[in-house]
Design goal:
Blueprint: E1 5-12, H1 19-31, E2 36-43, H2 57-74, E3 82-85, H3 91-99, H4 105-109, H5 112-119, H6 126-141, E4 146-148, H7 154-171, E5 179-181, H8 215-223, H9 240-253, H10 257-263, H11 269-295, H12 298-326
Parallel strand pairs: 1-2, 2-3, 4-5
Adenosine monophosphate binds next to strand 1 and helix 1.
Length: about 325
């Protein structure tokens, strides 16, 4: 009997997953669900990185539930994959603390996401600064071989690898050193209004398509997407707006950007955007319909996630105990 590779990934509990989350992460998880022993979690502890003044506990509880509904709606099957809330497994924060002994402050200061977010406004929380250490704990707890993520998370997975190697070197082989798996297409979905920035929940405005957007919202956002005055459907780093739309079209259709630009040669942006909007509506509509149904039954969602948490904890407990023992914690006799 061959043992399946262990795969681990999560998305922050923002409540409304967007197209970047889907094409950069969740779609691959679902497509390859049967190939691996999967641990997928809703990263709710990572949802605590805002300053306290911006955190609304009631809205957050709703967001956690809604994020869980979105995982199921896109096709994560809890009878195949272990699906759970991060906060239901306290070993995540235990291991974060153990790893902080090998994570250097200078390394955290160099993280691109920290530099970007810190630059966008003062008063950043220390949780935001420390987030990569928690993420390393998330990954290492489950002895994962693979971590499927979008390109924006590559640096954090590299960091988790470095810390695992360092910990193993100092304290004995406690951790499996995992690899990031970046999807060939959809790894970086850009904001529709600011195509030089990645699509994200935090970006305000019309540039983000959510998986529970109405048909009208999806069509409007595609039609208003920023392009340029050239009027030629192309994939060209000098023209990020239209290139992002071409990449989206190709990713949805499982074709290449070249096939897309050839198909629309000699046609303006209008026809292309209409076709893309139609495809996008077809993609989002069934997900939205399922999300709405699932959100209506929070008890069932809770039940499914509790089962996942029990399984996750049995694995997490063993790893955290191994790391504790390596550090000289654990039983003293
Ligand atoms: P986050 O929303 O930051 O918790 O990200 C969850 C997952 O979605 C990670 O694997 C990210 O790499 C992926 N992701 C988030 N935004 C994008 C984007 N704009 N394009 C591609 N992947 C993304």
């Amino acid at each position: 009997m061959t043992t399946k590779r262990r795969r681990l990934s999560g998305v922050r509990a923002t409540g409304r997953l967007h197209l970047g989350n889907y094409l950069g992460a969740l779609r691959q998880w679902v497509e390859q669900q049967e190939d691996a022993d999967n641990f997928f979690f809703i990263a709710d502890l990572h949802g605590l990185t805002d300053a306290a003044s911006e955190h609304d506990p009631v809205a957050f509880k709703h967001a956690r539930l809604s994020t869980a509904a979105m995982y199921l709606a896109v096709g994560i099957d809890p009878s195949v994959s272990t699906l759970f809330f991060q906060s239901d497994v306290p070993e995540h924060t235990d291991l974060m603390w153990f790893l902080s002994s090998v994570a250097k402050k200078g390394e955290l200061e160099r993280m691109t996401q920290w530099k970007d977010k810190k630059g966008k406004g003062g008063g950043a929380s220390s949780a935001l600064f420390f987030y990569p250490v928690l993420m390393a704990a998330d990954i290492l707890l489950y002895d994962a071989d693979e971590v499927p993520v979008g390109d924006d998370q590559r640096q954090h997975v590299e960091m988790a690898r470095d810390w695992a190697i360092r910990f193993n070197h100092h304290f004995g082989n406690a951790f499996i050193v995992p690899s990031a798996v970046i999807p060939p297409a959809g790894a970086r979905v850009m904001d529709l209004q600011r195509p030089n920035e990645k699509m994200s929940k935090s970006a305000k405005g019309e540039g983000t398509i959510y998986l529970d957007d109405s048909d009208d919202e999806v069509v409007r956002k595609i039609k208003r997407a920023v392009t340029d005055s050239a009027g030629v459907v192309a994939s060209d780093p000098e023209r990020p707006g239209i290139s992002n739309l071409v990449e989206l079209y190709a990713t949805i259709e499982n074709s290449t950007t070249e096939e897309v630009t050839n198909k629309y040669e000699g046609q303006g942006y209008g026809v292309f955007k209409q076709d893309l909007a139609d495809r996008m509506v077809e993609l989002v509509r069934p997900i939205r319909d399922r999300v709405e149904g699932l959100r209506d039954d929070p008890h069932e969602l809770h039940r499914q996630l509790s089962l996942g948490a029990d399984r996750a904890q049995s694995v997490a407990h063993a790893t955290a105990a191994r790391a504790a023992e390596a550090l000289g914690l654990g039983p003293i006799v």
